[in-house]
């Protein structure tokens, strides 16, 4: 088993620019960036000597859980994507952490981030979930990130509902591509709550196939500059906003007119129901009565039939039969 230790760092120290005149322990105390990606590391041991560490690269390894990083109080960037991590643990002693990369792991629940008040970016794309599972969010974690988180990447995680994310009012970039979002009304409600939102990627979701999908989001989210990788033209946005406002105003005027129109009861004749009482007729509005025109009876209609179609004898019999009727 490959374990991250001081000895392992010393083994790869040729990758670092060592300061002249410093011993290895002295050098490790001044170290701010540690690059140990793709080293088949399976466990994090004691590297507390690296007290000034601010950026740690541990992606593309075999690490199953996060541990032994409590010493790194100055850590701002942690890259642990493409490992075997199943739970987000032991990050409460990293108060300065601003960027956390955990994509390509096996995380099913986003939790354990309540103490990371400075976290700006959270990358959780492409979790290797069990069949039928989707990425879930702990409400306490979301509330703790509400004032800080600006970038969230949750691509390809079987997510079908983002309403829980509505508390992230500082969000500016949302990547939720290749999920299972299909309700345009839900997206309008949630995205409309983020006044700082600039870039959104929802490509590959079923909702993208809905009619006027792009138009709906552009009119609701007035701060968005890029949607699904395509920039939004400001003239197009203004046209869609005006069109939506005009449509809603016309709808309101129509509904008000319908409500104000008096109702008129028109009884039906019952000449064909001898011995029976009158039947109640349907209810019509004044507008319907004005548009209604009586149809002439067959006796008063004028028939126009070309002479070329009928012979003289046929015309004579037709006229006689019409008079006798």
SSE blueprint:
Layout lengths: L1 E3 L1 H6 L12 H7 L2 E3 L5 E4 L10 E3 L19 E3 L19 E3 L7 E2 L10 E3 L12 E2 L1 H6 L6 E3 L19 E3 L8 H8 L7 E3 L11 H8 L5 E2 L2 E2 L2 H27 L2 E3 L17 E3 H6 L20 H13 L1
Parallel strand pairs: 1-3, 2-4, 4-5, 5-6, 6-8, 7-9, 8-10, 10-11, 11-12, 12-13
Antiparallel strand pairs: 13-14, 15-16
Helix pairs in contact: 4-5, 5-6
Throw out a few tags for this protein.
single chain; 325 residues; alpha/beta; 10-stranded mixed beta sheet; two-stranded parallel ribbon; 16 strands; 25% helix; elongated
Give structural notes:
It is elongated and about 95 Å long. With 325 residues, it is α/β, with parallel strands linked by helices. Helix 4 links the parallel strand 11 and strand 12. It has 8 helices and 16 strands. The relative contact order is 0.05.
Unreliable stretches covering 5 or more consecutive residues? 272-277
Overall pLDDT confidence: 82
DSSP E strands, number: 16
Separation, N- and C-terminal Cα atoms: 107 Å
Large-scale geometry: elongated
Instruction: Report the β-strand fraction as a percent range.
Output: 5-15%
With strands numbered from the N-terminus, the spatial order across the biggest sheet is 2-4-5-6-8-10-11-12-13-14
What is the helix content? 10-25%
Largest sheet, in brief, is: 10 strands, mixed
The helix tally amounts to: 8
